[in-house]
Amino acid sequence: MKQAFIAVLLIMATVNANAQFLFRISGNGLEQPSYMLGTIHTLHGSVLDHTPVYVETESQCKQFYTEFDITDQQLMNELNSDIEKTKSNLRLSEGKTILDILSNEQIETVDVRVKEIFGLNLSDPKMKSFWNFQPRVFTYFINRKIQGEMIKKYGPQSSSRSALIDETCILRAKLFGMEIGYLDELEDRIKIQGFQSQGIEEQVDSLMDLVGNYDHHMQVAIKTAEVLKQSTVYWCLADYENFASMPYWQKTVKNSPSVFKERNEKWIPKMQKAMKKAPVMFNFGAGHLIGDYGIIQLLRNAGYNVEQVESK
Question: How far is 27 from 5, CA to CA, in rounded Å?
Fold first, then answer.
């Protein structure tokens, strides 16, 4: 289970902020500085009303780059189309079902857990449409159930309907007529949706670990939610150092190279090209700032000065 990426998207927090993880990028031949805002994805966009330093630096930028434009319906349709194509490859080989690749003992274990979670037996007619799918599809939906329980127990208590911070940043940039760019390619977004290639045996192992240790995975998810709430506190205090040194984030960044390191390394050339053209406001999850392969260090390695902007 991709604890960090999934939980960040699901744990909501409503805060008043007068500070943030905003960094200035200068030097290395840049005529004007660019900026990057590392966000906690679950923050409501209303926090920007309390971050005048972001508004001020935003006004100096001509371009806005984000991971992926979640407000662009055409791009979202394209992404969803590609994900559906990927899903079509998740079926077992012709004539095979999930009952053919699990042992009787494994089938019994999965059956008990599916009945407990979804109220259905594997043999139920409503479940037969899933029989031809690979084990990772079962893993995916059980993880979704864990996420749902997290929301129910630890989700938003606020009635606020404001957009989340990343969407708000994008909408503001469009309103101000900034040129919009994207750091991710479609295939990168598909990978982090959780449909990476796995062998059947590895998928079976993952599924059995999940159903056999369901309560443990639920507790891990809850602890993750608590950590993420602490992350919002550090964000509101502009305490990047304590945020970046949290054991949770250190471990997550290290253990998720496809989500962090690999994407960061792909982003740097795009960032350099954009900054040469005109000042940019970059927007992405704060986890991408952390560590030796974080955006801060990679930009410094490339010869740029990167300093946190002080709040006013």
Answer: 32
